[in-house]
Amino acid sequence: MTGTERKVFQKYYPPDYDPSKIPRAKGQRNKQFVQRVMTPFNMQCNTCHEYIYKGKKFNMKRETAEGETYLGLKLFRFYFRCPNCLAEITFKTDLENCDYQNEHGATRLFEAVKLYQDQQKKADEQEAEDAKDPMKMLEKRTMQSRQEMDEMGNLEDLQESSRTKECVDTIGFLSSTDPHLAQAQRIKMLEEEDDRMAKELMGITSEGRIERRIKDDEEDDNDVDEKDIPGPSSSSMLKPSIPKLGMEDDANNRKRNQQKERFSGIKLVKKAKPSEPSTSSAAPSLAPSSSSATPGTQSAGSSGLSLLAGYGSDSDSD
């Protein structure tokens, strides 16, 4: 038969054509077909323990499973060989569960969906069997009620334990039990106190500005001194002097007051010059008020401050 002759749609049949006289070829009843198929699930070969993952393509032989149907539909079986040891592995279609069923040569690996379906199917079958027996149904209801009572008791115990723990000071308990935490909190409090004292000494406000407030007694002294100063007052004179960083003015005032308190009870006494000249120079000396002194000298000094001033002038003249 030529190429053009096999493509025609109508062929000539002679009048004496009898199809029953055509000899039929002898073939297999269940013939296998080679088909390119992907593995439908993860599996492991039982011979060499090679892993075969889902979606790997193989040239498989397909045949119809004899005597197995589901609702009048045929089931197919697939044959292929392990890529490592060439052992034969087979699986077939499972139309009832819309899945494939492993037959032999390999072990199907874990799949959550398949496991859930199997468990659900077993539970449905067990429930259908229990529904037929009234004693089993009564026993099942009793067990369920007992389980509910146990769960309610456990829930009440948990609520009671949580109520007792509400009044517990967790921070105090942890600080008392954990020495490292207590030491860290103590160090933190000391650091905060040091920072606060440093800011007070430097005059730093919460906004970050540096301010220094003059005390009330210093303000009164400055007001008195400004009133005693003669002459026209100007805005520049009324302005207080800017204190220095070392606070030298306060130190000088404090030193002057200490000197006044020290020499308040001291009187100046001069030694009488001897008639004969002496090599030693007559130097004035300070003596306490309890020492013996001439009445003339006592009446000469009106107060300790005036004597101190006179002593300074005499020493300068000498």
UniProtKB/TrEMBL annotation:
GO molecular function, one term: metal ion binding
GO cellular component assignments: U2-type catalytic step 1 spliceosome
Organismal lineage: Eukaryota, Metazoa, Ecdysozoa, Nematoda, Chromadorea
Entry protein name: Splicing factor YJU2
InterPro entries: Saf4/Yju2 (IPR007590), Yju2 (IPR043701)
Keyword Zinc attributed: yes
Record's keyword annotation contains Manganese: no
Pfam families: Saf4_Yju2
GO biological process, one term: generation of catalytic spliceosome for first transesterification step
Binding site for Zn(2+): 45, 48, 82, 85
